[in-house]
Each structure stands twice: as C-alpha cells, then as structure tokens.
Amino acid sequence: MNKPRRKYKDYDESLLNIAVGLVENKNITSYDAEKQFGIPRRTILNKVKQKHTKKVGCPTKLPPADEQKIVSCLVLCGEYGYPVTSFELRSIVHDYLIKNGLSNIFNIKMPGQKWVRNFLKRHKNVLTVRSTNNIKESRASKSVKDYNTYFENLKISLHNVKPDHIVNYDETNFSDNPGSQKCIFKAGTKYPNKTLNNTKTAISVMFSATAGGEIFPPYVVYKADNLWTNWCANGPEGTRYNKTKSGWFDSYTFEDWFNTIIIPWAVKTTDPKVLIGDNLSSHMNINIITKCEEHNIRFIFMPPNSTHHTQPLDVAFFGPLKREGGEF
Q1: What pLDDT is stored for residue 83 in this prediction?
Q2: Dist. CA 171–CA 318, nearest whole Å
Q3: Shortest CA distance to 71 belongs to which of 115, 24, 122, 112?
Q4: pLDDT beyond 90 at 50
Q5: Backbone phi, then psi, for 299, in 5-degree steps?
Q6: What percent of the chain has pLDDT above 70?
Q7: Packing angle between helix 64-79 and helix 286-294, nearest 10 degrees?
Q8: Residue 75 CB: number of other CB atoms within 10 A?
Q9: What number is the average pLDDT over the span 292-314?
Q10: pLDDT in tens, 159-201
C-alpha cells in the first residue's frame, strides 16, 4: 500500500529563510522545521547546502528590473493624481513589452488578470487596490468646491516653480468636414446643396506653451496609413508630423511628442518642471515616467469633465480659434 503524500502549507521566502536559519544554527532539526513550518525538509536542506538558490515559487514572467520600472510608474501615476485601473496596467505593460521587443512573453497579447493579481501580491508592500465610486452622468459636472480644491492643490504644486518651467499642453482635433451650414440660395430651391472638396479628414494637433510665454512647435497627427511629404510642408518652424489610424494621439505619438518637443526644453535646466494637461491613459507609459524622473519633470492632471473650464489652452486658444474658423 502506497504511503499517502504529505500535504504542505503555502509559504513565502521570508518563512523559508527563518526555517533555514534555525536549522543552520542547529536550534532545531530539519525534521522539526518541516513539521513546524510546513515546508518540505528537502527544500530546507537544499537551502542550507546552498542548492537551488532561486526564489520560492514559479519564476516571474518579467525580469525584476522591469517589474520595478512598472512599480515606479504606478506609484508616480498615483502621485500625479491619476491612479491606473487593472486594465490600464495591463495596457501599459503590453505597450512596454512591444517597445522593448518582449511581446512574445505573453504571446503578443496583454497580460491577463491572473498576472495582475500575482504582480500586486508580489508588490503588496508598495501597491494597493482601492475601489472608487462611479460618478453618474448627472453628477459629472463640477461644483465650485471641486474647482477651488483643484486650484488650491495646483497652487501648492507650483510653489517655487518658475513660470518658464511650467508647461500647459492640449490636444485638439480639426476636421475639413464643415457639417451643416446656413447658406444663401434662390427662393424656392427644394434641395439646397453645397458642393465642397472635403474628405471628412480628422487632424489632431498638440499645442504646448510655458507660463512664461514660450510657445513650442505644434505636433500634427493625421488620420492616415501613410505620411505623405506634401502634408509636412509649409508648417510653422519646427512643426513635427505623424499619423495614426484614428487621427488622435496614442501612446506612441504622445511619447514622440514628449521626446522631441518636451525633452529638448527640459534638458536645459535641472530645476523642477511641471506639465499640466488632460489625464488620458493614452498619454502615460513607463518610458515617459522614467524620463520624468531623470529630468525632474512632474505631471499635473486636470480633473475629469472640467477641461472646458480648467484647460488654459482650451479656454483661451482653441475655443476662439474654432469659433473663428467656423464663422459664416
């Protein structure tokens, strides 16, 4: 008759180290340690004899250095006022793996929920998950108190930061589709139509400027599969061009804007610098967070559903620009 297999409790690295220390110092035998800690005797003896020195459990998918970068990214996002969700974490990791040639780790897919749970468990001393209350559409509008709180916090965050080191950025979308317009026709015209040469093309532009008055070159993103040379001609000096399928900024185009427009400005000084803009998940990735740490840059995200009041470029620039462009 076969002897029933002994069942062992779950244990972590710290518990194993205690058991190994007691056996090494001959405080208890390996048999006693097995019974007391629920750890296989052979595992304890292997550690005592410096065999199988790897960490307990299944090896992690990502190297420790990469996991630490992800942890730092999540911590800083929380400090910026933009804690990420589980889905956004998976998206950030997926983006990081693709850019670093590691997409085969998860078979070119996003990490699963199980990986997220294990990742948070491994870093529970630094990271935690908290529930947030869903805001109904009827409560989406901001109160005076909400605005006052934001501006009080903004005042604290900008303390001792020079105006030339504060940047406001905003993305806006333009279209060559005029929509419905009022036009003058001959009285009695049954089907008033206006023939225009337009393709309903969407074009996004990122504008940015410092509080000291310096305006950075715009960054233009076309809705297209190819970027044609004649699309990149005759723009303002220093303008950069790119393309996406949607015509909106994604993590790749935002990172390129950050590297080509913001970093050349940021490297001129080691003083604290602040970027103020929308809290869009597509704007954040590990590479940007790492460079923020290197160049003493801090993001400040405006409250959701408030940019029509709190976004300086939206209120003072884009609004008048679009009204002027849409006038009859």
Answers
A1: 75
A2: 9
A3: 122
A4: no
A5: -90, 145
A6: 77
A7: 80
A8: 15
A9: 84
A10: 999 999 999 999 888 766 555 455 555 455 544 544 444 445 6
Read off the pLDDT band of 301 (50, 70, 90). Answer: confident
* Phi/psi of residue 264, nearest 5 degrees: -60, -30
User: 247 with 204: CB under 8 angstroms?
Assistant: yes
**Cβ-based burial of 243 (10 A; exposed 0-12, middle 13-18, buried ≥19):** middle
Q: Over the chain, what HEC string results?
A: CCCCCCCCCCCCHHHHHHHHHHHHCCCCCHHHHHHHHCCCHHHHHHHHCCCCCCCCCCCCCCCHHHHHHHHHHHHHHHHCCCCCCHHHHHHHHHHHHHHCCCHHHHCCCCCCHHHHHHHHHHCCCCCCCCCCCCCCHHHCCCCHHHHHHHHHHHHHHCCCCCHHHEEEEEEEEEECCCCCCCCCCCCCCCCCCCCCCCCCCEEEEEEEEECCCCECCCEEEEECCCCCHHHHCCCCCCCEEEEECCCCCCHHHHHHHHHHHHHHHHCCCCCCEEEEECCCHHHCCHHHHHHHHHCCEEEEECCCCCHHHHCHHHHHHHHHHHHHHCCC
Tokens of 311: 């976004």
